[in-house]
Amino acid sequence: MIETDLKNLKIRLYALVIFRDILETGPVKKLLELLAELDTSEAVISRFPELAVISSADSYGALCRAIYAEGGDLSRFVLDYILNRDDFFVSNYTGGQSADASVSYAVADCLEEEMTTLQQLADLRSEDITSLMDCGMVLPRWENSTCDVRAEYLELLSGLSTSGYGMFRNTAMFKVRGGKLIAVRNAEYQTLSQLYGYEQERSLVLRNTEALADGKRASNVLLYGDAGTGKSSTVKACAAHFFDKGVRLVEFDKNQVSEIPEIAESLSSNPLKFIFFIDDLTFEDNDSDFYALKGILEGNISGTGSNILIYATSNRRHLVKESAAQRQGDDLHLNDTLQEIMSLSARFGLTVTFLKPEKDLYLDIMENLAREQGLLTEETTEEELDDLRRRAEAYAIRSNGRSPRTAKQFVTLANTGLR
């Protein structure tokens, strides 16, 4: 790349509109500083040649450091930047059937020009700059992968309904903080193949989630039952299973129910599909969040969009804590009150019950987990297996009874020699 090309690149970078915030990234900020150094007039260079070389070398070192901090590959940095960010062009694009339907011709032309600029940036080699510095020594260098910026970006636009854009591209699960979505990096969850037992119950949730992924009509889901039976694990596993089909999970705390409409509104035009997940959902008597959630499930004006479903787990069938006094209370329309309490769970189109496993299922889950963790092998004798079963039963009695969670805890302890 000759000196004229570098000056041209600098002008093109400063003229960016759609991708303008790349100017605030470390590599591009340091590149522009270096190009400004190299633009120093010949008169200054002729008077202070050593200072000019030192200054440009300092700026070049800062540029290399910024690129190294992003992985050391300038092309990869540029490509990751355009593929993993939110911008108004993508947001407008998702609002229509095509780019022409949702953005003006001027914006579309601007995009084409900026693709050329970013390709020129991605192709910028260390040698293009060091050849102009004439410092007489070997300087650090960065790498340049082969990439087609325009093709990659157009592929992103064509696959928005399954791959998503910005923070949704590489993240499956999110939480809500301060009214905004926060990506959960390295979220821990079990895959469907790591969940044992409850195949019939899990298949109902899986099929419903598949319908959501396919853009078909699907139901809000309530997973009700005993603690430790894998309700929340099932929700997360089903959501993760359809990640490549565009399903993402957003977890709400129970006290964040009132924030659902606002978050839903922000995602209403997003081409992805979302599961709003509320774990361990229960309400106190006269809880305002009870009525808020009931309204959302009824599909009122504050309800969710067609690309959003609500999945909730609870240990209580009717979700509201009741006392004997309430059952006997002095409400003149007691039956109506109790019917209203029970009506919330009825608002979920699909209710799936997870009960504590019987002995055979509990031991089967334990054995599968034991094989998964290497505690049981082909060399394990029948006597050793019987002993493991006996200890697993004893552990369940001493703990909280039989459940997949108890089985997992036992296997973990047994594998470390503590049980």
Q: What do you see in this structure?
A:
- The protein has 419 residues and is of the alpha/beta class.
- It has three domains: 3-158, no CATH class; 173-354, P-loop containing nucleotide triphosphate hydrolases (Rossmann fold), CATH 3.40.50; 359-415.
- It has 20 helices and seven strands.
- Helix 2 (26-38) runs antiparallel to helix 4 (49-69).
- Mean pLDDT is 84; it is low at 41-45, 96-101, 323-327 and 332-338.
Shape: globular
Strand order of the largest sheet: 2-1-4-5-6-3-7
Work out the number of β strands: 7
Range of strand content: 5-15%
State the share of residues found in helices, binned by percent.
40-55%
Please give the structural blueprint.
Layout: H1 3-14, H2 26-38, H3 42-47, H4 49-69, H5 74-83, H6 88-93, H7 99-102, H8 105-122, H9 126-133, H10 149-158, H11 160-163, E1 173-177, E2 180-183, H12 199-213, E3 221-225, H13 231-241, E4 247-252, H14 260-267, E5 273-278, H15 288-297, E6 308-314, H16 324-328, H17 334-346, E7 350-354, H18 359-372, H19 382-398, H20 404-415
Parallel strand pairs: 1-4, 3-6, 3-7, 4-5, 5-6
Antiparallel strand pairs: 1-2
A few lines on this structure:
The protein has 419 residues and is of the alpha/beta class.
Keywords:
7-stranded mixed β-sheet; alpha/beta; 20 helices; 419 residues; globular; 9% strand; 7 strands; 52% helix; Rossmann fold
